[in-house]
Amino acid sequence: MSFVSDILDYNRQFVEQRKYEKYLTDKFPEKKVAILTCMDTRLVELLPKALNLRNGDAKIIKNAGAILTQPFGSAMRSILIAIHEMGVKEVLVIGHHGCGMTQLDSGLLVEKFKKNGISEEVIDTLENSGIRMDRFLKGFDRPEDGVKHSIEIIRKHPLVPSYIPVHGFIIHPDTGGLELISDGYEACGKGVEQG
């Protein structure tokens, strides 16, 4: 049996047995928070549990390293929609220790592309079109650097209201322990009691 067949078989049972009922909610985040975090598999269940989040509490946006690569990319678009359409009042950027984006070597990754059948011609065409692989695939030296980079883009974004606190954290992928990297209340001039 294939992975997709297994998923479909399980899903049929899940629906027939009405297991979905305990997850019913609407599209508006109950806690009015959006979270930009890493796609790391260790965080799938751990992060919501470590933050005491249940289904429906938050908008969770995931990508490699919790990095915003540009102010008008898809992850930033999701944050803007969460704020302006979904009632989000705070944004959390959560990186983690042991992230795969730490000291990512873009040159080695390009070599893996080629090994996996991507032609040199495709790479050259992208580079000649202005897609610089060294920038597009850039990681960071420390996860804190990635969090600070993303926070900076969000806080300075012309479409993010200045009163929206943007917080930064690092989570430990084994224990769920959180470290505060940047207090968004201080940065936007709000007191914690106003948050």
TrEMBL record:
<comment type="similarity">
    <text>Belongs to the beta-class carbonic anhydrase family.</text>
</comment>
<dbReference type="InterPro" id="IPR036874">
    <property type="entry name" value="Carbonic_anhydrase_sf"/>
</dbReference>
<dbReference type="Pfam" id="PF00484">
    <property type="entry name" value="Pro_CA"/>
</dbReference>
<protein>
    <recommendedName>
        <fullName>carbonic anhydrase</fullName>
        <ecNumber>4.2.1.1</ecNumber>
    </recommendedName>
</protein>
<dbReference type="GO" id="GO:0008270">
    <property type="term" value="F:zinc ion binding"/>
</dbReference>
<dbReference type="GO" id="GO:0004089">
    <property type="term" value="F:carbonate dehydratase activity"/>
</dbReference>
<feature type="binding site">
    <location>
        <position position="40"/>
    </location>
    <ligand>
        <name>Zn(2+)</name>
    </ligand>
</feature>
<feature type="binding site">
    <location>
        <position position="99"/>
    </location>
    <ligand>
        <name>Zn(2+)</name>
    </ligand>
</feature>
<feature type="binding site">
    <location>
        <position position="38"/>
    </location>
    <ligand>
        <name>Zn(2+)</name>
    </ligand>
</feature>
<keyword id="KW-0862">Zinc</keyword>
<dbReference type="InterPro" id="IPR001765">
    <property type="entry name" value="Carbonic_anhydrase"/>
</dbReference>
<feature type="binding site">
    <location>
        <position position="96"/>
    </location>
    <ligand>
        <name>Zn(2+)</name>
    </ligand>
</feature>
<keyword id="KW-0479">Metal-binding</keyword>
